[in-house]
Specification:
Helix 1 crosses helix 5, helix 2 crosses helix 5 (about 105-135) and helix 4 (about 90-100) packs antiparallel against helix 5 (about 105-135). A five-stranded antiparallel sheet has the order 2-1-3-7-4, with helices on both faces. Strands 5-6 form a two-stranded antiparallel ribbon. The protein has eight helices and seven strands; from the N terminus they run H-H-E-E-H-E-H-H-E-H-H-E-E-E-H. By secondary structure, the protein is α+β, with helices and mostly antiparallel strands. The two termini are about 35 Å apart. The radius of gyration is 18 Å and the shape is globular.
């Protein structure tokens, strides 16, 4: 059984969420970001739920999902992993309080929380990859509703399939917004053959802060 865990937050990734394009980050702003990172770690209470289900002809058995992108992801797979992750309600309340008292901090904390929930997903993906590797199998990259042509309303189907209301307190509104907001649902495939994985972006590069490409609003990778 894989448990929710969160490692150190990626500072570069937070800058990316804040729209950083290579401009100087003053010591004062960096200190503000670091303080917000600590606040998010204080209030985040990561929880997750997942399930492995069989795949037939590029579709999860009993869970129809629209779109060619998810079908292409699952086509070579025998199983799928459904995942739902949330940081919990305390971080939601902390963000709302900060929106009243300090909007600048609220914006930074929101970015930190977005990075935090992705961090929990990354940790799960790492742990699941090790688990299936022990079985001689391979995990695809994760794919979430709203990516490509996978409709956002898939959020609700995934949450219903995983019973997230009861198991981790995660609900979906009529407009397909998840509550708590800092939550993620995703699908991954399990295959007998290695699959091409999504490349990490600029935030993983050591040149992130001083990159001449980012200053021009472009990237050096595909």
């Amino acid at each position: 059984m894989i448990e929710a865990r969160m490692t150190d937050l990626n500072y570069n990734e937070i800058l990316m969420y804040l729209g950083h394009r290579g401009q100087e980050v003053t010591p004062e702003v960096e200190a503000q970001i670091r303080a917000c990172m600590a606040e998010v770690r204080k209030y985040a209470a990561p929880r997750l739920v997942y399930s492995r289900l069989p795949v037939e002809n590029g579709a999860v058995r009993g869970l129809p999902m629209e779109g060619e992108d998810i079908r292409a992801l699952l086509e070579p797979c025998q199983e799928a992993v459904l995942l739902a992750v949330t940081l919990g309600s305390q971080i939601e309340q902390a963000l709302m309080r900060r929106e009243v008292t300090d909007m600048a901090d609220a914006v930074i904390m929101d970015s930190c929380a977005s990075v935090a929930v992705e961090n929990v997903c990354d940790c799960f993906e790492e742990d699941m990859r090790e688990l299936v590797a022990a079985e001689g199998l391979f995990l695809t990259s994760r794919f979430s509703p709203g990516y490509g042509d996978l409709p956002l309303d898939t959020q609700r189907r995934l949450c219903e399939a995983l019973n997230t209301v009861r198991r981790i307190g995660l609900t979906v509104t009529e407009n397909y917004i998840m509550v708590p907001r800092k939550s993620v649902t995703a699908v991954m495939g399990i295959s007998a053959e290695p699959q091409k994985l999504r490349t990490r972006g600029c935030e993983a590069c050591g040149m992130f802060l001083h990159c001449p490409y980012r200053k021009r609003g472009i990237v050096c990778h595909e």
